[in-house]
Each structure stands twice: as C-alpha cells, then as structure tokens.
What we know:
By secondary structure, the chain is α+β, with helices and mostly antiparallel strands. The protein folds into four domains: 3-126, Beta-Lactamase, CATH 3.30.450.20; 133-252, PAS domain (Beta-Lactamase); 258-341, Helix Hairpins; 349-493, 2-Layer Sandwich (Heat Shock Protein 90). The protein has 15 helices and 18 strands. It has helices spanning 13-24, 44-50, 54-57, 62-65, 73-80, 128-150, 169-175, 179-182, 193-209, 254-300, 307-341, 353-363, 365-371, 389-406, 461-471; strands at residues 3-4, 29-34, 39-42, 85-93, 100-111, 117-126, 154-158, 164-167, 213-220, 226-237, 243-252, 349-352, 375-379, 384-387, 412-419, 422-429, 475-480, 486-493. Strands 1, 2, 3, 4, 5 and 6 form a six-stranded mixed sheet that branches. Strands 8-7-11-10-9 form a five-stranded antiparallel sheet, with helices on both faces. It is elongated and about 145 Å long. The protein starts with a strand and ends with a strand.
Amino acid sequence: MKTKLSGGGRIVPSMLGFADNLLRGEGAGLVALDVDFRFTFWNAAMERITGLGADEVMGRFAIDAFPFLGDQRESLGRALAGETVAAERRPFAIAGRARERVLEGSFTPFTNEQGDAVGVVCRIRDLTEQKLAEEQLGETERRFQNMADAAPVLLWMSEPDGLCTFFNQTWLDFTGRTMEEEWGVGWAAGIHFEDFQKCMDTYFTAFNARRVFEMEYRLRRHDGDYRWILDRGTPRYSPDRTFAGYIGSCVDITDRKRMEGELRKAVRDRDDFLSIASHELRTPLTTLSLEIQSLKRALGKHPKGLPKSDRLERSAAVAENQINRLITLVEELLDVSRLASGRLRVEPTEFDLSELVREVASRLKPSLDAAGCALSLEARARTIGSWDRLRVEQVVANLVSNALKYGPGNPVEMSVTQETECACLRVRDHGIGIAHADQRRIFQRFERAVPLSHYSGFGLGLWIAREIVAAHGGSIDVDSELGRGSTFIVRLPLRAA
Length: 497
C-alpha cells in the first residue's frame, strides 16, 4: 500500500506517527528516507533495535550511517521508483557498538498527490531472538539425531495423525530400507503377516486412547530373517500439552524368546519326569505299606510280652511312619506336576466339613501323640458345602502336619465355623512362628521360612494347599509372630467355584 504525502512532497510526521502506532504492537521499527536517502523519521522501536537515538541519525545519509545498506542501494532505488521491495533477512552490526542483530524488512515508496515518489519508508523487524531460538532448536534436533542414531535400540516417532516420520539409523540399518520407504506406514510392510493385525490393533487402540503400549511382533531384518521385536510406545506432548504423536523404542528379543522356549521345555521335561517318577515310586511304596500293615496285624496275634515281639512292633511302627512320609512326599511331587501342567481338577461333592475335619484329626491321632501335641477341636454340628473331598482333606492334613512339625510338644487348636456364604477352618499351633516378612513367601513353591537343615520337606505343602483352596475359589492366610505360634485360616465358598 502506498503512503500519500501532503502537497509539495513534504513528509507529514502525523502520517508516520499513525503508522508507528499501528506497528507498535509487534515491536517493528519504522524509518523514513527522502529522495537522497537521508533519514527523516526514526521511531522508538528503531532506537531499541539499533541502540541509536533519533538525534544520532536524523538528516544523515542512510548509507553513511549504515555502510552495509550499500548492498540495498538497488532495492532502495526500486522503492523510490514506485515498487514495494522485500529485504531479505540478514545480520546487522554497528561499528563501535556491541550490538549484533538479525533483521528483515521492506521498502515502500512515499508518493505525493500527483503520484510521484518523494521518499521511501522502511519497515524493520528484529528476528534476532527468533534466529537464536531456531539455532537452539536446530542444535537440539542435531543432538537428538546424533543420540538416536548412536542408540543400540530401534527408535521411531509418529505425528498426531499416527503416521511415522522418523526412524533412527539403527532402525534403518536393521531393516535395510531408506527413510522414505519406512515413512508413514511403510514400516509395517516388514511385519510378519501372522503378527500384522494384532500389531496394528494394539497400536491404534493405544494411539486413540493416548496411552503407553507394549507389543511383540516379528520384523523382517535386512537379510530376510524375521526377528522378534519388543516395541514400547509412549505419547509425547508439546510444551502447551498438545498431543504431538508418539515416540517408541524397539529391542530385538529373539534370543530371549528362544531361551524362554528352551526354559519352558526344560520345565515341561522336569514336570514330566516328576510325574513319571511319582507314579513309579507310588506303586512299590503302596505295596510296601500294605506289607507293613500285614506285618503289624501278624504281630498283633503274637503272644505279648516277648522281647522279640516288642522290638518288631516298634520297628514296624517306625517303618510305617517312614513309608507314610515317603508317600506324602511322592504325592507332593505328583501334585507339583499336576499343577504345573494344569491337570489339577476339583470334583465337588456335597459333604460336611466339620465331619471331615474330625476324621482327619482321628486319623492323625497317632502322629499327634508321638509329637506330644494335644488336639482340641471346636466345630459346628454341621457345615455343609460342595467341595472336592479328597483335596480339602489334603489341605487339612497338611496344616495339621505343619503344626506338629513346627510346634512339637505344644497343643494344636482347630475350629470350623461358618461365615456368610463361606466355611472357615482355623488351625493354630504354639510353635516357632513365622516372621512377618516371610508370611507371603511361605505360600510360594519350594519356599521355606526355616533352614532345611533343621526341618525336612520340599517346601511344597503350603503352596499345594494354596492352589487347592484357590481352585475352590477360596483363600488361605496366616496370622503369626515369631516365638508365638501361627494360625492358618482357610475360607472356602459353600459352593466351589
């Protein structure tokens, strides 16, 4: 837009003042030159930009004041000829002043009422801070690029539309493709076809929800081999918290997956061995147990009071206890293999829990007497529920056996109560107790809260009990203090899950 002057071609200060007010909001400088390119107007913004006051420049030739404007002589001439000319961004320095700025601007002609150019008005914008910010941003981007390319993991970034716009050099070296080939959704061409749909579903579901995601898929390497990749993506945001897309990292987990497969196979082989060994051991132990029972019956018919008879009875009793202990250990091993393979099943039938606890207590009376443990039982007349009888019996026997092992010579207290929709069994001993830090650990497989040298066993009993109770939809907990005994609490829904 051309600026008019009053008659005679004289620059009207009020007009420049009006233009200065318009530019003040953006902090732009405003300068006016006459036909000889001498300064006739210099606003306050120019004083801030250059550090020169109006009294230092007014009336001076522009090229004398600022020699670098010699490069703009042609542009000034074109403006004076009636053309609006844009001045490219360039550095600006004043001799003797510690001030360097980056400026851009435009030259616009002044015309009188006859349309003749009588001067030039220059609009100046200070881009120093913008250029500094651009340089800092560029340095940050270069630093990020260098770090990303040096990273041992595959890195990627996507925009708010979900399309990927960055892959580090590690990714490109892995796939053997160019940035242009991977751009957008091109990278997905390397995903194994069996993993493609799940990968895309995971990515876009997380993307739409703006949440962190993690997925595994096979990605084709530059040699054509498919490698397992663990890909983790995180949403990223601009400083004003505007969603800016995702950044993700990928690691090659092929070796880990192979080791996991080998480990799973080793575990399966171990469990198969335990299952076979348990079955093979169970048969001769059962036969031996029957033989010992037969021997005890025969000894019962032998005349009493004979030394030989007493010795044989004691030996038979010891042998029977050891065989029963072996049978228990073999059963635990067999249960381990069942649980590991998912073959442990509950077969609920309706029965009275109070009656079952009394039967177990009666059967274990010889062991209780041998350990010097008096047993007290407080049970409801009837506590009817639907559970797997053999498995629940196994839990009860296990808890009582633990009480004998860790509290010999001390009383054992049992109770059966009924809570809302639930039967509750408590077994309390007055033995060594369990430290609070160990009370969760003892329910894990092969875990013990005491040294193996002091107490025998595999550390499987409580784990098996927990698994059986969990299979019924119930829970097992312990309340204990060191030196003050332990109380195990089993809760079973009246109807097994």
